[in-house]
Specification:
Chain lengths: ~190, ~230
């Protein structure tokens, strides 16, 4: 149990997917204009991460043992289909949420966090339970990073930065500060 | 008989492609990716590898070369198959073509440079999820002939490699005091460790972005003054 909770804490805080491992930066910079969209996208990502973790584990256990060179292709196809299934299910059963997420739902396919999760889970030889905890941690970490960034950016909209910082410069420096804050957790794993 | 005669002429006229890029020479196609539409510093595409692997010049350069290989190869094949791929399944087909080239790059790198392959780890297979590749396939390669698609892939790849190498050199020189592993300064040099850590990646790209924005503003101001 302690092992599992350590995987969870480590993924949410110490090795935060977005701020420390640089995964899923496109949505981190692209979709963090408003906090409501940000955390909703984070939760949608968490759901896809969970689906991916399960399917990647089954692929690794039963299919890719014989054909390891097909790993990248197999993962990306499975992720694309998982996203498509989620999209159809949301469209049918939760039409309101579907309208709110709009284009960001299909874009989850090209989010490196999803493929990154599958690859890290493979290289660390996680069991199914460990992989599930890893996926929930990664998803919550993403949601946390997206919401933090969105809340800061909502405030900076009212400020008057210099002309050169108006596009991405300011956002990148804010991200650097957030990442630095998360580096404060870096020592946590050394005792284990 | 007339029906037989008219059928080929109808097929000969090229289908109208909305949003097709304007005609340009090959040099312009290559140069666009390095300068005006630089994927890293202007378009901010493919930022995950940009920050994750640029702590050392060797890693950044290797990532750039691998991405160039995938961009050029997938551009060629996306362009060759553009008339046979149905509109509804085009994204899936592009991803499959890209994933094939990424697998090739991954295996080639692991066979020829095992150290770099180990250092880059999962970031080579993660090239599949780089928005730059899908973006170029959808916006450019799927709408032009194979020669232009290859030129564009080469240009974008060169621009990506150059930007990554510049960022990585900055981080390696100041963060470690070395370049390609060779020490540059004397023993009294105190490395700026911050640059080697994840926040340093965001910071370096932020500074680069500010410099580019400053250059653009400066040029604008001087252009107005000249008129």
């Amino acid at each position: 149990m302690g092992h599992l909770s350590w995987i969870f804490v480590s993924t949410v805080l110490v090795n935060n997917f977005t701020l420390v491992m640089f995964l899923g930066l496109c949505s981190f910079f692209g979709v963090t204009g408003k906090i409501e969209t940000a955390w909703r996208l984070g939760l949608a990502n968490t759901f896809v991460l969970l689906l991916t973790a399960v399917s990647a584990w089954f692929l690794n256990a039963y299919v890719l043992k014989q054909t390891p060179f097909l790993r990248t292709i197999a993962f990306i196809v499975v992720i694309a289909s998982a996203v498509q299934i989620v999209e159809m299910a949301v469209k049918k059963y939760l039409p309101v949420l579907f309208r709110q997420l709009g284009i960001y739902l299909p874009l989850i396919t090209t989010n490196c966090a999803i493929l990154g999760l599958a690859l890290f889970q493979t290289s660390r030889n996680y069991t199914l339970v460990e992989a599930l905890v890893f996926a929930v941690g990664a998803g919550l970490g993403l949601t946390l990073a997206l919401s933090l960034m969105a809340s800061i950016r909502e405030r900076t909209e009212l400020t008057d930065p210099p002309v050169v910082a108006r596009r991405m410069g300011l956002v990148l420096v804010i991200a650097s500060c957030l990442s630095m804050a998360f580096m404060g957790f870096a020592g946590m794993g050394s005792a284990e | 008989m007339t029906a037989v005669a008219t059928a080929p002429t109808k097929a000969d006229t090229p289908p109208f492609e909305p949003g097709a890029p304007p005609p340009a020479t090959l040099i312009q196609d290559i140069w666009r990716g390095i300068g005006k539409e630089n994927p890293v510093l202007v378009q901010f595409l493919g930022m995950c590898p940009t920050m994750a692997v640029t702590n050392i010049l060797a890693n950044g350069f290797a990532m750039g070369v691998a991405t160039t290989f995938v961009l050029t190869g997938s551009g060629l094949f996306v362009s060759l198959f553009r008339k046979y791929v149905a509109h509804e399944v085009r994204i899936t087909s592009y991803i499959l073509i890209i994933a094939t080239f990424v697998t090739l790059a991954d295996l080639l790198l692991a066979a020829s440079f095992p150290d770099i392959s180990k250092a880059l780890g999962p970031f080579i297979p993660l090239i599949v999820a780089n928005c730059l590749l899908l973006g170029r396939a959808e916006a450019f390669a799927a709408k032009v002939g194979p020669v232009r698609a290859v030129a564009d892939g080469l240009g974008m790849g060169l621009g990506f490699t150059l930007s990554l190498s510049a960022l990585a050199s900055f981080r390696e020189i100041l963060g470690r005091g070395t370049l390609l592993g060779h020490p540059l300064f004397g023993p009294r040099f105190e490395p700026w460790v911050f640059l080697m850590m994840p926040p340093g990646g965001f910071f370096t790209l932020g500074v680069a972005c500010l410099v580019v924005a400053f250059a653009i503003e400066w040029r604008k101001k001087h252009a107005v003054r000249r008129v």
